[in-house]
Design goal:
The complex is a heterodimer of chains A (276) and B (73). Chain A has 276 residues and is of the alpha/beta class. Chain A contains ten helices and ten strands. Chain B contains one helix and five strands; from the N terminus they run ββαβββ. In chain B, strand 3 and strand 4 form a beta hairpin. Classes of the chains: A alpha/beta (276), B mainly beta (73).
Chain lengths: 276, 73
């Protein structure tokens, strides 16, 4: 308890108003032998906002920020959507990210995948993702799994998650993911892309979005095999997914539940698919 | 009379929305085939806002919406 009081005194003393500068968070970590993540949790609990989240203000309160920091989000796939999802979730301040992807970066990823770069070709996507998160927000804990999602490993890997977000590249595997999330009663934010087009939807516990994922194609691929995936579509769709995820974690706003958003960037049309 | 709405790539060389007269008993599958849309490319198929299968027979006045399957990430 004395250590706790002493930490609180240190943080309060170093805070500027209710903002805790990053260098003070690091110093507290060294001085009190705790991780920057532990310091962040303690600070937020005492109504001190790490300075990095200053511009989250109004959108995200200090109590909200603690809620985000206490959340554990599964990101399934670390490619086109996944790269942007991971970047945004880490900057938003989601405390724990469980990352799944079996792949290594290849040259044809470079046109769109935020985490890819020539220097990292051949490296595991989850390893690069872990390094990126450590570089941009060291208070975020990453649990990387270099494995493909399946119904067999899904339950174990995603148990304890507050929400899961879809960065997969296959409709059949997405159906498996939706099924596991239904079993676990964990909210799922679905996203998919092809060319100029994308779609987003939310599956809350008790609901089923698998009718958006018709198993019509035998290999689980869609029109992206013809259209490819340019740089901007994953950025748009992943951003919409992150907004839905933030709302789920914070219990705010109106979600894309029982409806989906179909995005056409070529004609700049956003159609709502209501489905029952 | 049916209203057919096509989305994204399905509009190319076809239309955005059209009214069609179909003989009684015409299934969605037949409508899709006649439009030259590959069945395995269909992601979402709605009849008046509800998901439907290709065997479904739409009723007069229904609006059919056909979206391509997006699988990428």
């Amino acid at each position: 308890m004395r250590a706790e009081a002493s930490l609180r005194e240190f943080l309060t003393c170093r805070a500027e108003g209710d903002l805790l500068p990053w260098n003070a968070q690091c110093e507290a970590s060294e001085r009190f032998g705790r991780s920057v993540a532990e310091i962040e949790a303690a600070a937020l609990g005492w109504d001190l906002l790490p300075g990095r989240y200053r511009r989250n203000r109004e959108t995200v309160s200090v109590a909200d920020q603690l809620r985000l920091f206490s959340s554990r989000v599964g990101v399934i796939g670390c490619g086109g959507l996944g790269g942007y999802l991971i970047e945004q979730l880490a900057r938003l301040g989601v405390g724990t990210l469980v990352l799944l992807d079996p792949d290594f970066f290849e040259e044809h990823n470079l046109n769109r995948q935020l985490l890819s770069s020539p220097a990292d070709l051949g490296r595991a996507k989850v390893d690069v993702a872990r390094e990126r998160v450590a570089a941009i927000n060291p208070a975020v804990t990453v649990e990387p799994h270099r494995t493909a999602f399946s119904r067999d490993n899904g339950r174990e890997l995603l148990s304890g998650c507050s929400a899961v977000v879809d960065g997969l590249d296959n409709v059949l595997v997405r159906r498996e993911l939706a099924a596991v999330c239904r079993d676990l009663a964990v909210p799922l934010v679905h996203g998919a892309i092809a060319g100029w087009y994308g779609q987003v939807a939310v599956q809350l516990p008790g609901a089923d979005l698998s009718r958006l994922l018709r198993p019509t194609s035998s290999n689980g691929k869609g029109v992206e095999t013809k259209l490819g995936n340019p740089s901007f579509t994953p950025a748009v769709i992943a951003s919409l997914q992150t907004a839905e995820l933030a709302k789920i974690l914070l219990g705010r706003g109106k979600l894309l539940a029982d409806r989906a958003l179909f995005v056409n960037l070529l004609d700049m049309e956003f159609d709502e698919i209501r489905h029952g | 009379m049916l209203t057919i709405k096509l989305f994204a790539t399905f509009q190319k060389g076809r239309f955005e929305a059209a009214q069609r007269e179909c003989p009684p008993g015409t299934t969605l599958g037949k409508i899709v085939d006649e439009l030259g849309i590959a069945r395995e490319e269909i992601g979402v198929l709605l009849v008046s806002g509800r998901h439907a299968e290709l065997e479904h027979v739409p009723a007069t006045g229904d609006t059919i919406a056909i979206f391509p399957l997006l699988g990428g990430g």
